[in-house]
């Protein structure tokens, strides 16, 4: 599990840099300001959580269910949140908005919140 978290974190980080450059140089010409801001939000959240996964991969042993669930929340939350935003932005720019992705974004956001809540709980569980 440690290696999976580190590899996924590194891949998400790599893709965040790639998508950020793509947005800044290629999509800037074809997306509205609002769509470009949304795309950048997806990139930012992806990078934040990529870095978090790498840090967790080096600091946790993933010997407990809590740590494993936390990692899965961050991985799947990032994929659902950021990649649904990318899909919505790119499909909107082509005039065929993929509306089915609309509900996916908040599900990804809820998974990210759950991951952060589990991380918080892991810190205070020994105190309470």
From TrEMBL:
It is found in: Membrane. The chain crosses the membrane at residues 47-62, 69-88, 100-124. InterPro entries: DUF423. It comes from the Bacteria. Belongs to the UPF0382 family. Signal peptide: none annotated. Keywords: Membrane, Transmembrane, Transmembrane helix. It comes from Muriicola soli. One of its GO terms (cellular component) is plasma membrane. This is DUF423 domain-containing protein. The keyword Thylakoid does not apply. Pfam families: DUF423. It is a multi-pass membrane protein.
